[in-house]
Amino acid sequence: MSKTEPVMQDIMRKPAEVLYQEELQALIREDQGKVPTGWQMSPQSVLKFIVGGQAGGRTITPKYIGNARLVEMAIATLVTDRALLLIGEPGTAKSWLSENLSAAIYGNSGLVVQGTAGTTEEQVRYSWNYAMLLAQGPTPEALVKSPIMRAMEAGGIARFEEISRCASEVQDALISILSEKTISVPELGKEVNARKGFSIIATANTRDRGVNEMSTALKRRFNMIVLPAPADLETEVEIVKKRVAEIASSYDLQAAAPSDEALQKVVTIFRELRSGMTLDKKEKVKSPAGVISTAEAISLLTNSMALAASFGGGEMTDEDLAAGLQGAIVKDDDKDRLVWKEYLDNVMKKRGAGWRGLYTACKEMNQ
Prior knowledge:
By secondary structure, this protein is of the alpha/beta class. It has two domains: 16-227, Rossmann fold (3-Layer(aba) Sandwich), CATH 3.40.50; 233-365. Helix content is 48%, strand content 13%. The strands form four sheets. It has a five-stranded parallel beta sheet. Strand 1 and strand 2 (58-60) form a beta hairpin. It is globular, with a radius of gyration of 23 Å. The relative contact order is 0.10. InterPro entries: ATPase_dyneun-rel_AAA, CbbQ/NirQ/NorQ/GpvN, P-loop_NTPase. Residues 84-222 form the ATPase dynein-related AAA domain. It holds the Pfam family AAA_5. This is AAA domain-containing protein.
């Protein structure tokens, strides 16, 4: 094997179908349900893969911690010919659920269109290898298939991330695909027809400043499911703890996992800044300009672990946490710094000895 040839162990972020390969195989072996055309397991096994359970003596870890009924509705949508749209605030696991649903149903979560302000219609439908196009004219070999076209041909699942960040004309390129289940290629005088099993899972962020409102015609072609933020402190702590452990293992961070006390403090701070109210509802607090999501809390703790491993003794300290909090909360310097200072002085400072070390470290960072 050459040094330039990639190996799976060296991949920074393994796709869900690789990361949970053994769980998927166990579920497929034990599956007794009816498997829809194009799927690799039954809807019941897909649900177990997402919410957790047992398969042949193997523990299936939960991938989504929340309302299982929402997951059932998402899976039921994909059994039909309807596309699925997952909507929610940042950090509500839209992309994570989309990836794991695709991995369980089709075994490939990599057919992705990433929505941005620069996404073009060609990335949704197809484009051309222009060197071959100039040399030979329009031929099947010169056609560059989009992830959606490839999913249609294979009867698989395509993912469209952050669809509402795309311009309206790009969004509307999906209307005929979702209605007719075909993509016309007039240059070749042919149509690409979707095989059974094809569907699209799209995600949309409700708090993105770059959102382009989806047309009513496009919305009608999706079943929409709103994913809520974690309902309570304990649920959010559990989500953060699980994802931090998985990411730390993937990066082989040589640091101890954050303590339950540290997890609870970070999640408490995030929930209070996000809601504009202390958990006991006795005091209002100002919210920073940025989005203080569960995903940000996971990133903060992972970075703090890396800091402790690289420049500390391997045990996360209040100083490591304070550095992460500063970076996560103070985005718009002047306004956010003031908001954070008020929170430190009016809320954290009054919480007694258990919070004293973190308060002091945060206060020093915010000077």
